[in-house]
Amino acid sequence: MHFPQRLMLQLAFKQTDQEIVDFYARSNAISIPGVPKFDSHRLVDGQGLIVFLKPLPPSSEGRKFELRSRVIGVYDKGKPGGVVETETVLSEKGGDDYTRAIGSAFFVGQGNWGGPKGPSTPNFPPPEGKKPDVVHATQTNRESAHLYRLNGDYNPLHATPEPGQLMGFGGAIMHGLFSWNTACHALLESLENSDVANIREFQARFAAPVRPGDKLITEAWRTGEPKDGWEEIRFVTRVDGAKVVLSNGRALMRCSSVESRL
Fold this sequence. Notes:
Blueprint: H1 2-14, H2 23-28, E1 43-52, E2 65-76, E3 81-92, E4 97-108, E5 134-139, H3 144-148, H4 161-166, H5 176-191, E6 199-206, E7 215-222, E8 231-239, E9 244-253
Antiparallel strand pairs: 1-4, 1-6, 2-3, 3-4, 5-7, 6-9, 7-8, 8-9
């Protein structure tokens, strides 16, 4: 489940480079007309949505794929910061689209530049007073962030302590997409016997940082109301015994295991 989202991020960021790239230089090379230059030294994930439109083929032999990316919104959130929202589509050249992802980058403390505040986003809270249908644990370690950056995200925030210290995190933090993908894997493993054909959409908001060594707990609730064959799942991910790190979690799935407790 890491493949589509990580592939899209890696190709959009690294392009055709095969080696490690300078994260700050590559990020700062992007210019948006009418928008101030944001500082990528103070950049974190905002929220993400991915829609699985068609299963990826097992081989790329005889096929050509393309990645189309565009900025769909730039928003001024005042003192907290600025947001850049992008859409990325993975497709076969001259053929079908396979996945569509919408993600937002949050530039900490870089607001108040006179831009639009942006639309409000829908909320998908977990049901009150209901026990989760799924509880899944993932233990990270001190090397987790270094291993995960091999996917192509070379932001120093996840490798050395200085950027995180400057941003008030106390040191290096895990990639936001590590928590995001881990939660998706938890839902697939627990509700669909790891069959990736049974997920249509997945989304969550990045609510707080995760430190290497933290234990992540994902709790999920089935709604029990399939629509057009897809059931809505609500979920949250938190550091064990502490803060929520993924909020507003929602997925559309075909569930083959675990009865709903709603």
